[in-house]
Amino acid sequence: xxxxxxxxxxxxxxxxxxxxxxxxxxxxxxxxxxxxxxxxxxxxxxxxxxxxxxxxxxxxxxxxxxxxxxxxxxxxxxxxxxxxxxxxxxxxxxxxxxx
Length: 99
Hints:
mainly alpha
């Protein structure tokens, strides 16, 4: 449940309905099988390792989509504008005409 959403914790149903040999419906508890509980713990550990980079990637994608939408708006009709993005320091030295 919710395994594909890295913002949510992995979860499982406490019980599920199954059919026994006689055709009767029975409720099977999740923790009634030690192997199932162990497999879920292993899967949860692997999923937790996946969520960290996945959340970063999704944040980066949202940023890209935001800037791409701005870029698309500029390209559609504003011919005198350019979108420029950078990271750095600006150093500007001027000479004064009033010395």
